Amino acid sequence: MLRNQTPAPDFSLRDHEGQQQTLSELRGDKLMLLFYYRGEFCPTSRKGLMDYADIYSRFEPLSAELVAVSVDPPETLRELRDQMKLPFMLLSDTDFQVAQGYGVYRSDDEDGPQPHGEPAVFIIDADGNLAYSQIQSGPKGSANPADLVLMLLYMRDNDGRYR
């Protein structure tokens, strides 16, 4: 399990346009909020995406970026992004690279759900380290996106770090 103040695992995934993207290139010297959601089929995930879309305009003044990741293929991500008019990048984790690296991969036995990534939020600081993480295993208790913006504001005002 990842711990705060440890390096965020880098990754390379295809975006909603099929282009290869890496965390390190997307982040650059910005703060990064990484939102892992179950997929387009999940109503709770769709609500989460809309919640982040509602606050996305607050990210640029904070020198922060938001990326959402799921196991959906790029074609599904493109359709979802267009349908929901999402302003941020969606990344495809079809081989569970990020889910495993960030500790959100779940696969139950034959009786349980198919392999998936649990909903989660990670904030990565200016040094590329995890500053905040929350993994949820149900529809309740997710981080409030507006509260996360406050954390990003605090970090921006403290050299990009959460102290």
What does the model show?
It contains five helices and nine strands; from the N terminus they run ββαβαβαβαββββα. The protein is an alpha+beta fold. It has a seven-stranded mixed sheet with strand order 2-1-5-4-3-8-9. The longest helix has 13 residues, at 43-55. The relative contact order is 0.21. The model has no long low-confidence stretch (mean pLDDT 90).
In short:
By secondary structure, the protein is α+β, with helices and mostly antiparallel strands. The chain has one domain (30-156): Glutaredoxin, CATH 3.40.30.
Topology:
Blueprint: E1 12-15, E2 20-22, H1 23-27, E3 31-36, H2 43-55, E4 64-70, H3 74-84, E5 89-92, H4 97-101, E6 105-106, E7 116-117, E8 120-124, E9 130-135, H5 145-156
Parallel strand pairs: 3-4, 4-5
Antiparallel strand pairs: 1-2, 1-5, 3-8, 6-7, 8-9
Features:
5 helices, 28% helix, 163 residues, globular, Glutaredoxin
**Gyration radius, to the nearest Å?**
15 Å
Fraction of residues in helices? 25-40%
Tell me the distance between the termini.
21 Å
Beta-strand portion reads 15-25%
CATH architecture: 3-Layer(aba) Sandwich
Any idea how many domains? 1
Q: And the CATH topology?
A: Glutaredoxin
Largest sheet: 7 strands, mixed
CATH superfamily: Glutaredoxin
Q: What structural category characterises the helix and strand content?
A: alpha+beta
Q: What is the ordering of alpha helices and beta strands?
A: EEHEHEHEHEEEEH
Q: What is the general shape?
A: globular
| Average of pLDDT | 90
| Largest sheet, spatial ordering of strands | 2-1-5-4-3-8-9
Spans with pLDDT under 50 lasting ≥5 residues?
none
Q: Count of DSSP helices? A: 5
CATH class: Alpha Beta
How many beta-strand runs?
9
